[in-house]
Amino acid sequence: MFTGIVQAVGEIAALQPSGGDLRLRVRSGELPLDDVALGDSISTNGVCLTVTELPGDGYWADVSRETLDFTTLGGLEVGSRVNLEKALTPASRLGGHIVSGHVDGVGEVVSSSEDGRSIRFVLRAPAPLAKYIAHKGSITVDGTSLTVNAVNGAEFDLNIIPQTMQETIFGSYRPGSRVNLEVDVIARYLERLVLGEAAAEPGAGGLSLDTLAEHGFLRR
């Protein structure tokens, strides 16, 4: 588990295809690894990766085909900059929100504009994720915990302060940039809880107006 508070920006040092999967070497930059052991987890652009080697200036991790298919990691190149965060401990401050490192989908940067000393970004989420994104709710973008300022369909606004621009890779985003999105874990579990016993039925999907009405959440 993570908090979504990026601790350092690293750099991709090597990419090694391996049997359809990928081995990834990351230079960790200012992220201290003295307390990291083999098997520990590090969020890399919002993706929870397991450390398989510690060469001294960073770490190696294996990236499965599933992860390559559902995140932006397959599009990284040597030299690409990535947001890094070590897994939280019981003594960690939860400065952001609870982040699992399990990416829900890939979004796209629509636009950016100056907003005082901050930069306002508009991002577009995949349509199936739009229902989990709420005004003033939390969302994780490439491992960064952020508050949603506005929602318009599948598009949502983020206000990025100078500190976040400096300490993450947000400064490299341009219209069309693809980003890893993780919605608030509470929203995902709430959907399953509302389904009740129907969640155990084969083919049970997400919420519908009929389901909400059946369980007393809507009146018709």
UniProtKB/TrEMBL annotation:
Residues in Lumazine-binding repeats: 1-97, 98-194
GO BP term (any one): riboflavin biosynthetic process
Residue span, Lumazine-binding domain: 1-97, 98-194
GO molecular function, one term: riboflavin synthase activity
PROSITE patterns xrefs: LUMAZINE_BIND
Subunit-level organization: Homotrimer.
The organism of origin for this protein: Parahaliea mediterranea
Keyword Repeat (UniProt): yes
Catalyzed reaction equations: 2 6,7-dimethyl-8-(1-D-ribityl)lumazine + H(+) = 5-amino-6-(D-ribitylamino)uracil + riboflavin
Role, per record: Catalyzes the dismutation of two molecules of 6,7-dimethyl-8-ribityllumazine, resulting in the formation of riboflavin and 5-amino-6-(D-ribitylamino)uracil.
SUPFAM superfamilies to which the protein is assigned, alphabetical: Riboflavin synthase domain-like
Annotated metabolic or biological route of this protein: Cofactor biosynthesis; riboflavin biosynthesis; riboflavin from 2-hydroxy-3-oxobutyl phosphate and 5-amino-6-(D-ribitylamino)uracil: step 2/2
EC number(s) on file: 2.5.1.9
Origin organism lineage: Bacteria, Pseudomonadati, Pseudomonadota, Gammaproteobacteria, Cellvibrionales
Enzyme's top EC category: transferase
UniProt keyword terms in alphabetical order: Repeat, Riboflavin biosynthesis, Transferase
Protein name listed in UniProt: Riboflavin synthase
InterPro entries linked to this entry: ATP_synth_asu-like_sf, Lumazine-bd, Lumazine-bd_dom, Riboflavin_synthase-like_b-brl
